[in-house]
From TrEMBL:
GO terms for biological process: phosphorelay signal transduction system. The lineage of its organism: Bacteria, Bacillati, Bacillota, Bacilli, Bacillales. InterPro entries: CheY-like_superfamily (IPR011006), Homeodomain-like_sf (IPR009057), HTH_AraC (IPR018060), Sig_transdc_resp-reg_receiver (IPR001789), Tscrpt_reg_AraC-type_HTH (IPR020449). This is Two component transcriptional regulator, AraC family. It comes from Paenibacillus uliginis N3/975. The keyword Nuclease does not apply. Keywords: DNA-binding, Phosphoprotein, Transcription, Transcription regulation. Residues 434-532 form the HTH araC/xylS-type domain. The keyword Transcription applies. PANTHER family: ARAC-FAMILY TRANSCRIPTIONAL REGULATOR (PTHR43280), REGULATORY PROTEIN POCR (PTHR43280:SF10).
Amino acid sequence: MKILIVDDEPRHCRGMAGMIRATRSHAQVIIARDGVQGLEAARNERPDVILTDIRMPYMDGLSLLSKLAEGDYKPKVVMLSAYNLFDYAQQALRHGAYDYLLKPVDIDKLEEVLTRIEIELSKEAAERRKAEWIQDRLAVTVTAHRKQLVMEWLFGTLSTAGQRELERMGLHQGEGTIVYSIFRPGREQKSMLSANIEELIHDVEAFWSSFGNALSVVLHVPGPEDNRNYNVEIATVVHVQGNVLRERRSSLHAELDTLNARWDSYGRLTHAVGPGCEDLGKLASRVYRSAMEASTYLFHDCWKGVLFCDELLHTRKQPSFELDGEVFKKSLQGEEAGTAIRLCRNAFEKLAGEGQTDPAVIKDYASFMLTKLQNSLGDRLGTETVKRLAEASVESISTCESFSSLMEILDACLAEVHGCWRRWKHDKRELVIDSCVALIQERFMENLSLESVASRYHFNVSYFSTMFKNRTGKSFSDYLIEVRMKRAEELLAGNEMKIYEIAKCCGYRDTKYFSRVFKKHAGMSPESFRHLSIPLVQKGENL
């Protein structure tokens, strides 16, 4: 509680201040020496209670009371009077004083008056809070009703009574346009959105108010049950002459960039400005639909978040998607994914038509391309990649909100497909060479050649030769000779077969050629190898 003591006698002031502090240590006490000082202190400090003497120089207590009554500030004024001034005290009560105390003031009487004042101040504060709450609720109700009428007007469902009500508000008639704004929150900022919606709406409405009378209405606010649409959608009715927007269009783009930049840390704010019209009362719903339909084209990054309806061509060419399937598929099978990604980007940038192509068409082509890749290369991509391509074509592409984000999705998918293709080719090469090795070990006695085996597996001879050496560490002919010579050694050491018979069993029809190859491999002729091997075999049998 703040208490002002007004008295020209310093001793009385000190005594009153001491009594107040003795019973109310929390109270703030202010002292004035006469009515003039008291009036100035009252206006500056606005105390809850004023204890003022009646008889003072310059301005007495009654004059002070009269001056205070002229303003809206109404403190509780308690008059201090001597017995011989009792009539003045009664007069003060008639002029609005709260009470009076006789001098010398009794501390119990003072305490009783201050207690009553505290109770009344508490009641008055509660009543003010209630009145303010009612006023706030009334304002909210009025605003909500007003915005509901505007929404019905924009949707074309406004009743006749609603039209009359809007006319009284001054919103239903005149020249102007409708702006359809969408705020798309970032993934991390969705939980913070509810706390900033009012500020967002205020910023949008304040911006368009600089052009004329404007009212922003929230069309959609994400709730807890919204699993997909986290966007805030706002329609702003702007009463403005068409030439104003046309003349300020270039600067307006820069001004909107500044507004949008304020919200960049939370998400992406875009605006589609409807066509200007001379009579909003009749054409508002049509203007609103035009702005809303145009807003879908803000998907294209080239508009930089701001699009005027008349910037879209009324007669747009049928979009065409020019991507050579064979060239594209071949580039995906190349050494680097970059070529395929560039081909894809070029095709989609041409399809976008400088922001004039319906985003739904672009997304359909993107989904179709991934589905076609999935179907044509599915057996070579792996389960997880096929699953991701399916998710991208069904979910990610349909919900992406900009051309650049669509390109990022396609880039990632193509890079993954290219990686899978490379791994598949590597795995396939290894399987082919492993199969070739098994073939050599099983059929080394036949007339095998690099050309015949490469043809068997449908590979170019040179490419097959390189693959074979990379996998085994040996050339095809060296590996074949090694297998044949190993078998020749086993036959020479283990039985009584003739040399020509062993040569034939190892794939050689010419015995002399077999002997030369064997000597080169073992460092001795087949006969010498047999001669040296027999004692070893016999010794092994005797063990």
